[in-house]
Amino acid sequence: YIGTVDLPKVPSARPPLFGAPEEPVASPSPTPAASPKPQASSGAPTAAPSPAAGAPPAATSRPAVAAALTPLEAKVKPGEATAVSVVLMNAQDLTGVEVVIAFDPALVEALDVAAGSLMTLGGVPVGAERSMEPGRVRVKLSRASGVAGSGVVAALTLKGLKEGSTTVTVETLTVTTVSGREQVRMASPVHITVKP
Length: 196
Hints:
alpha+beta, 28% helix
């Protein structure tokens, strides 16, 4: 029975263990409750830094605008046409694009340049100023309201003239948004092979 006497001592010891922390917890819980009250009063200043702290991540979470030509390679027969597109990625509040595209005029000829699907998104009319000369196309496209997203902003149609290989490059690409203008660097040029 010594074991049973010890068992009552152990359970009697356990309640004080649980009881003792409950009592200090009960008395400190008003103290933490008191400390949240001062934190609540300092919570207003904390709330002001929270939006400020939230704003930089929002600014950094916005991906940079990027651009590319597609396709990377194209094959065309003399006398036939192929298309090269200027694709813009991560555009925000886009209202205009100005692009200068260069190519070898001995091998390909520009037939047309038109606004792409991102510029015409939502059925918004697009203003276009074009200048096509041998070896170079300039186009300025604008829309009344801003658009966001990724897609084709300009589509160039080229005709193969004679056999050979050439590259189509973007010399300059300027993007106009609601907040201003920005030069965008292009990725690789398009390689065009004219072959019967």
